[in-house]
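Write out this protein's structure.
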Amino acid sequence: MSDSPTTSAKKGMRKLMRIPTPVIFLVGAVLASVLLWWQGSLAELWEVVKRADTGTMLIAAPVYLVSLWLLALRWHELVRMAQGWSDLPRAAESFFTSVVINYAAPVGLAVPSRAALTKRALGMDKHSTGVVALWEIGMDVIVLGIGSIIWMATSRGSTSAVTKELGDNAARYTNFGLTGLAVLAVLVLIFFRKAEQRRRAVHFVHRIARSPLDRPVIALQAFLYTLAYWITQGIVLALLVHAMGVEPSFLFILGLTSLPMLIGMLSPIPGGAVVREAMMYVVARLAGAPGAEVVAAAVLYRMALFLAIPILYGITRLWLAKRSAGHPNLPQPESIG
């Protein structure tokens, strides 16, 4: 008797998760590089870099590395919030690997791959995995939502400009949104046909929702890391905009780091493709800044993530190797998972 599609998928996932994390990272980095080259992103980046002020970009580089490490720290705190303990270098390794996976297959795979890799590295159960995956998005939405409200309330003409931009792309958003809803509806019908399945789902969601209340201090630390990350991202964007010859203001940078990021994150278009840059252009025009230079800064910002991740991943791997060498009873980095 042949295996069902679900059983085959589970077996395939188990085989995939046996692959050592360094191999996953290396393959993901190679595929991402090829994909970026094929899309013309690397050539576009080079053209932008030639126009930018090198000194300012050199200042922005370490700030950006620090900001990404803040995200790894947040992921570590979310794991602690979910199950009471974590291991920082292993959590960080899972986080950085998932970012590369998202570049290699940019269809919103960052969060699920991050959760899966952390689950195997730290032995999380389904509840803990759901907590870290959903609250990572939730904390970003809270911070970016507050920033977006402040910007729209204080920036003249923002409401009409944003409405027009969203209206111009309404058909595209609607098509992707309806497709997503249809897929979600089918999944709900398949997985929650029985009352017991529905009861378990409700209980699962309830446990996830109340997780911050179970460990409020750790939840607050994770939120503070989120806030610090987005503040640091604002500093990075201000430096990159300045590198392109545009003088940034607080309100302008607040607009760039809040609403475009939020809309890109929540967009039904996979990966928020184009949406974020289009909204950044709107913010730039409202601030009286040249849109082309701001979009060029956005290109630098987007590519900086891919360039920075291998550096942080290498540091994390060295940390794991050094720790394992000093403590023979700890599992070797190659065997994590």
